């Protein structure tokens, strides 16, 4: 009897150790961001607009991130991320997609890199928001006000993304998104490429995004052939300790390579026309001031078409941390449109309604 008890006890210990080991090898993290504040916009056809809104610095979100150790240095990974509006509790999109921000699964290896499938960010947007823009593509000073980052330039569905291992600071990423139109493997597809170097105080990325905008034939409706939208961005920042400097320069060519955030926000008799050939520039700084950070940037849209609808944006902001997870912010930006251009000052989640905007808000990450 005593022998059997010892055997049962040993079995229980082994089972417990195995369960603890299995649990340690896989985990799911729940994370998110709640961002809400006061926005005042002016200068547009809608007049002065004051509102409480969500996602000013970064869209409010709830996400699930998982990792499972498969052995031999291989891991299974997944991310599911939903965006919502903290001002009214609704979802931040009109498509009723539950995980509209990110939804992917894949495999990761230290030696071979990572391959993921699903809805994911483009290399172009990551380079702009994480490397070139001191405002991180948020607040009134967001470079999204002038740079071509709308729609599929930000994130794309049905995508395969490969990210290489980092070797001596160098890395590469490749994206291929299927258009999934019956009768054509080319219509609607998207290709992205990113080459990066991050070592010490220097961070540089060269990103390219190409979108096929053809529509495949459906029944008696013929196929529609359109120009491709091509966007290339050189992004860099350098940390001088007393100040962090940012720079970005983009080349945009083709239909929808630079879509207008708002069709005719200023109510012009002749509506602005989206450029099909343009260059974008941003230069900015992040300066530690007190316990917070002062942000400032200058952005420019150079329309190279005959319309020459250029625009300049100046922006300033201050982020003040209340803790490691909670911060307050204030930001202001103003755009000067030229030759009938119609660019607006928005933020991370909204396109804006006029040529200037003021933000005051709070955000909490968990």
Helix/strand layout:
Layout: H1 2-25, E1 26-44, E2 47-54, E3 61-71, E4 74-83, E5 102-109, E6 113-121, H2 123-132, E7 155-163, E8 170-177, E9 190-199, E10 202-211, E11 229-239, E12 244-258, E13 275-289, E14 292-303, E15 311-321, E16 326-337, E17 356-365
Antiparallel strand pairs: 1-2, 1-3, 1-17, 3-4, 4-5, 5-6, 6-7, 7-8, 8-9, 9-10, 10-11, 11-12, 12-13, 13-14, 14-15, 15-16, 16-17
Strand residues, percent: over 45%
End-to-end gap: 53 Å
Report the CATH architecture of the domain at 124-365. Beta Barrel
Structural class, by secondary structure, is mainly beta
CATH topology of the domain at 124-365: Porin
Number of strands: 17
Label the overall shape: globular
Q: Spell the H/E element sequence.
A: HEEEEEEHEEEEEEEEEEE
Described by strand count, sense and barrel closure, the largest sheet is: 16 strands, antiparallel, barrel
Average pLDDT level: 93
Domain Porin: 10-339
Keywords: Cell outer membrane, Ion transport, Membrane, Porin, Signal, Transmembrane, Transmembrane beta strand, Transport
Signal peptide: 1-24
GO molecular function, one term: porin activity
Explain what this protein looks like in three dimensions:
This is Outer membrane protein (Porin). One of its GO terms (molecular function) is porin activity. Residues 1-24 form the signal peptide. There is one protein chain. This protein has 366 residues and is mostly beta strands. Helices cover 9% and strands 51% of the residues. The chain has helices at 2-25, 123-132; strands at residues 26-44, 47-54, 61-71, 74-83, 102-109, 113-121, 155-163, 170-177, 190-199, 202-211, 229-239, 244-258, 275-289, 292-303, 311-321, 326-337, 356-365. Strands 1-3-4-5-6-7-8-9-10-11-12-13-14-15-16-17 form a 16-stranded antiparallel beta barrel. The model is unreliable at 1-24 (pLDDT under 50).
